[in-house]
Amino acid sequence: MEIFYARESDGKTVFLDQEESAHCVKVLRHRRGDEITVVDGLGTMMRCRLADDSPKGASAEVVETFQDWGGHPYSLTMAVCPTKNNDRFEWFVEKATEVGVDMIVPMIGERSERRVFKPERSRKIALSAMKQSLKARLPFVAEPVSVKDFINESADGIKMICYCFEGETMRRSIEDVLAEAAEGANITIMIGPEGDFSPEEARLAVENGYIPVHLGPSRLRTETAAVTAATAVYLHYLK
Amino acid sequence: MEIFYARESDGKTVFLDQEESAHCVKVLRHRRGDEITVVDGLGTMMRCRLADDSPKGASAEVVETFQDWGGHPYSLTMAVCPTKNNDRFEWFVEKATEVGVDMIVPMIGERSERRVFKPERSRKIALSAMKQSLKARLPFVAEPVSVKDFINESADGIKMICYCFEGETMRRSIEDVLAEAAEGANITIMIGPEGDFSPEEARLAVENGYIPVHLGPSRLRTETAAVTAATAVYLHYLK
User: Fold this and answer.
1) A18, A93, A191, B120 from A167: Cα distances, Å
2) At A140, which helix (H) or strand (E)?
3) Is the alpha carbon torsion for A200, A205, A209, A210 positive or negative?
4) Using the beta-carbon criterion (under 8 Å), do A235 and B98 form an inter-chain contact?
5) What CATH number should be reported for the domain holding residue B25?
6) Rounded to two decimals, what is the model's pTM?
7) Residues A110 and A210 in one domain
8) Are residues A163 and A208 located together in one domain of the fold?
9) Does residue B185 sit in the same domain as residue B230?
């Protein structure tokens, strides 16, 4: 099943950008009158009929609309410090999108080795992972922010920080905290860089309502911890 | 923390192979008398004192021994059909090893596009992931087998097959099945290729005691499904 992404839609007609138009018309050779499946990236899937098969700017008429297509019963923000190796972070973006995430915030921590992060590639990866996993909502990959700014600006809900508080702070397992997460919960999870959060960052998070959690006995890489945490949220709602 | 892997050990002395010896002596410049941490790949970690610092074949005296180091309270066999793209399967091997897996069986299914699989690279990846994630037990990456042979030869325990039985068979969620998994459970999970299992393979599995399970509403790639299933087992034991 092939999914097309339309940034523009007025509810009656959807407009594919140049890249999607070329893929639809040149690569897949769709012609006027063909039925195609289009998502708006905001949660809506539309069965459409191709009206203009121009490879530079195709458009289609909406036949049928499905709301919250491929959605999930929670809202998850993953705030993760990008890894030294970009591929590892991009792999997290792909996997988290497949499983189900709403917002990805790249954070720069005091101990981050990677101090610069350009979200463009990750946004492309989230887009193709959304289409590949048959979802209509595109996870938003934010511009990078400092860990402290993220903590100070973060919204309410169930907030967790994965941090190896070396014994000094009591941590709960992520499963234990998620047991309290109801349908539609707003969940935020912070994952630190290879060098972990600084003690001040961790203290600030706890002062701002972040629950210190652990992901169990295994020592996981940054991107593995991030995917494991997102998967824990996803699996919680299967129960 | 640097971990060395010793294929040979008599309980008193451990012997590093050429690659590990070179890494220990040439790269990390360890010298006779230095304390090093060695694992045997069978679950035992040993604090050792370097006795022979030859870069071709170093050996060390065992000072202290720790059993089941970095172990997990279950035994998990992941039987997964290798993906068209080798990197994706190798990524699964790395992540499953970090989280905790005991045996990885590459299966060739009737609908597998990849009909040939060489385990050498995956074994190297499992070895470095074991060391990186501070575990002493090396997951065994088996030689490839056909799906039907694997089913016919598979052991007892909690056996699950992830298969999109299109409505015709009642499936339980993996979380529902894992709820019955006690400490030390023997768990086997089968994940099909991009083209999924054939109906005959699925039927044979069910006849042989495999419980049809789903991983929830998200449509996951083969390697994502495999990591999600392994993570579900790992997280079950955090409760």
Assistant:
1) 54, 31, 18, 39
2) strand A140-141
3) negative
4) no
5) 2.40.240.20
6) 0.95
7) yes
8) yes
9) yes
- Cα separations (Å) of B220 from A150, A195, B86, B194? 30, 31, 17, 10
Give the Cβ contact number of residue A107 at 10 Å.
Answer: 25
What 3-state DSSP class applies to A225?
Answer: helix
Q: Is the CB of B135 less than 8 angstroms away from the CB of A218?
A: yes
In a shared domain, residues A16 and A119: no
Q: Are residues B115 and B202 in the same domain?
A: yes
Chain A residues 176-205 with a CB less than 8 Å from chain B = 176
Question: How distant, in Å, are the alpha carbons of B3, B46, B53, B60 from that of B23?
Answer: 11, 18, 11, 14
Domain of B152 in residue numbering reads as 75-236
ipTM score of complex = 0.93
pLDDT of residue A114: 94
CB atoms within 10 A of CB B77: 22
Per-residue CA distances from A117 to A90, A93, A105, A141, A144 (Å) = 11, 14, 11, 11, 6
Whether residues B92 and B203 fall in one domain: yes
Question: Could you tell me which of A214, A217, A219 has the C-alpha nearest to residue A232?
Answer: A214
Nearest to A189 by CA among A207, A177, A203: A177
β-strand partners of A137: A41, A42
What is the distance between the alpha carbons of residues A135 and A157, in angstroms, rounded to a whole number? 24
Residue type present at position A31:
R
Find the angle CA(B106)-CA(B107)-CA(B113) to the nearest 5 degrees: 105
Q: From chain B, pick out residues whose CB is under 8 angstroms from the CB of A221.
A: 98, 132-133
A121 and A20, same domain (yes or no): no
pLDDT in 10s for each residue of chain A, 239 residues: 899 999 898 889 999 999 999 999 999 999 999 999 999 999 999 999 999 999 999 999 999 999 999 999 999 999 999 999 999 999 999 999 999 999 999 999 999 999 999 999 999 999 999 999 999 999 999 999 999 999 999 889 999 999 876 666 789 999 999 999 999 999 999 999 999 999 999 999 999 999 999 999 999 999 999 999 999 999 999 97
Domain finish residue from A45, A66, A87:
A66
Tally the residues of chain B: 239
Please give the backbone phi and psi of residue B141, each rounded to the nearest 5 degrees, phi first. Answer: -95, 110
The number of folded domains in chain A is 2
Q: Which residue among A70, A134, A221 places its CB closest to the CB of B98?
A: A221
A98 touches chain B (CB under 8 A): yes
Give the nearest partner residue to A238 out of B132, B175, B234, using CB atoms.
B175
The pLDDT assigned to B167 comes to 64
